[in-house]
Amino acid sequence: MPQRARPTTYVYFFLIFLIAQFGIHATLVTMPYFWDEVGSTVPAAQAMGHPGAFPTPAVSLYLAGVWKLFGASEVSTRCGMLLLSAVAMLGIFLLSIELCGSLQGAPAIMVAALTALSPLYFSQSVLAQTPIPAALCMAYGLWFYLTGRRVVAGLFGLALLWVLFSSLPAIGWGHVIPPRPADFVVMTARRFSSLFLANFHFLGTIGLLMGLRSGRLNRTRWKFAGGVAGVYFLSLCVAAPVLDRDLVPVLPVFYTAAVVGFYSYASKWRMALPVAMLCGFLACLWFAPPFWSDSIENSLAMSDFSDMQRMTAAYLEQNAKGQVVATAWPLSVVLKDPQFGFVEKPVRVMRLPDFSATCLAKVEKDSAGILVRYSRSWDPPRNILPINRATRWFGRRYLGYQLPIEPDEIERKLGLHLAASWQKRGQWVEIYSR
Questions:
Q1: Which of 74, 229, 258, 282 lies 20 to 30 Å (CA to CA) from residue 273?
Q2: Where do transmembrane segments lie in this chain (predicted)?
Q3: Cα dihedral sign, 70-72-75-77
Q4: What is the pLDDT of residues 375-391, one digit of tens each?
Q5: How far apart are CA 100 and CA 256, in angstroms?
């Protein structure tokens, strides 16, 4: 496609990406609100309906506009974000064409496929959170700059800063700088691992090294794109908490660099390694890592989590009338507020920081009639984190791992027994009552 293609060409490709995005996310369009959505963006968008209220996160402003046109619901939220992700995909496609230059074999198509099926981009495409708008601004900003339209590129750069910084008050400014040097080192290591190793990204790193060796990544356009992506990545290393989704804006540059490396060598490697990456991405969407915990929002596990939260809320609404339910966020929030669509009437809730033994030990025996605990990460059957004291400490401090408390200990300390439970593909919910 030429640098200045006809407008209809852009429309055709946008429609292709739009159909593709809705096609691969068809089963997620009705997914209930998930995790951080109920903590920041959705409440901020809901606040638009109250006089004098104005949402801080930029994505909430967009979401409020979608609701104004189509009504506030999970479906309109998912469809609105998929529309935004398709617009971002067009920008990523155009950027990859510019970066790949004269490289033969339609590498931009492969970059688009890798991006769309990447576990991080795939999951964020339906969530009302910052990464997709940020990726959109990053992709178009770089593309307009590389094609000589610097003023428009600057506007997208300002939009990127607005998208990112407008979300900080919702997160909390105290999370921006790691409190200790040791935390900074570990968080930086996690960022590097997430970008260059995890989710089969080690194959992309091989492609990146191949591209550097071939000399194709030493050109001016790559120095600029890589520099912008590098500055963004390094800025994440001083930000806490460490969320894999924050890497979404730099993934297109990383995948394009990998594809350039793959396509720079013999034809037998040209398709083998990127196809292996695609297969790895699909595996990561469906299966948990074999030996360690993973974030629920990085895969299709997020759908299971939301479904189980809704199932739990329905059970409690029928069986916990008048009783205080002790549980942790985000279930504690959706039980109290019917606007999220999990309950019709508010449920009395005692919010717990987490489900650790230390936290439950502080709960008074008669303060709650029901305790609900549930999996907050995607744990494999052979998780290595509980092996010994050192791995438990490291997992608890840096990976969010919590040592499970036994049911008999809950009964002994709180006088509650297991009343109901269910599991779904490695995730679980347990409800204890008197």
A1: 229
A2: 12-34, 54-70, 82-106, 126-146, 153-172, 192-212, 224-243, 249-266, 273-292
A3: positive
A4: 887 766 555 555 445 55
A5: 7
